Structure formats: C-alpha cells, structure tokens
Amino acid sequence: MLSPFTEYTCYLVFKVSEKCPGLHCPVKVRDLLHRRKKENKIIYFRSPAALNHHDVFWVPQQRKDGWMEVMIWKFKPDYNKQVVPMNLKLVTYEGTMSGLIICGLEFRPDQS
Q: Across residues 75-100, what is the average pLDDT?
C-alpha cells in the first residue's frame, strides 16, 4: 500500500544484451494517461558521455544485483484513491530497442 503524502519514483530494471550494438541514443518516455501535461522525459539505457548528461536522474545506474535501473516516472498518490494508473510509452529516437532485457518495474519512496 502506498502512502498518500509520499512522492514515489518508478524505476525500469533492465539489462542490455552483450550482442546488442544499439541503444546508445536517448529514449523518450511519454505518459499516455496525462497527455495534457506534455511532459516527455528523456532516458538512456547506456550512459552517455559526461557532457551529454541533461539530468542525472534519467541515466542508468548499476544495481548490486547485477541489473541496471533508470528512473522513468515520479508521482504522488491521490489521497482518495487506492490505485495509481500508469500508461508509459518508450519511443526511441533512432533504431530499435532490440536487445533490451526487462526485469520489471520497481516503486520506491523518492530519496531526492
């Protein structure tokens, strides 16, 4: 159960196949349920050069369990609702996302 007065962060937990030559370009994350906000986030599946870091939260981090994670969404649950709907779409700027191995999503209270 989520606390209604706590901001949460959603992470995509993944690996990139060793045989995958792509996924070097940024990927756009769109929230299809809240299109009016028109907020698109840019994430990376491979760390870009240091000069290209637009936002340190949206680049992948290595986890202790061997998987990678990247933040894809922040939200605060509505006090009156028990469910938090989400419909996120990942759009690559170039090529495909072939070789992306997804473990799942992880929700945690925001630490920032």
A: 81
Tell me 42's DSSP state. Answer: E
| DSSP character at residue 34 | T
* Rounded Cα–Cα distance for residues 59 and 75 (Å): 18
Tell whether the model's pLDDT for residue 78 goes beyond 70.
Answer: yes
| Residue 68 DSSP label | E
Sorted by where each begins, the domain ranges of the chain are: 8-109
DSSP strands (E only) in the chain? 8-16, 27-31, 40-43, 61-62, 68-75, 88-92, 100-109
Residue 57: which pLDDT band, with cuts at 50, 70 and 90? low
| Nearest one of 60, 54, 56, 58 to 13, comparing CA atoms | 60
pTM of the predicted structure, to 2 decimals: 0.80
CB-CB contact of 30 with 91 (8 Å): yes
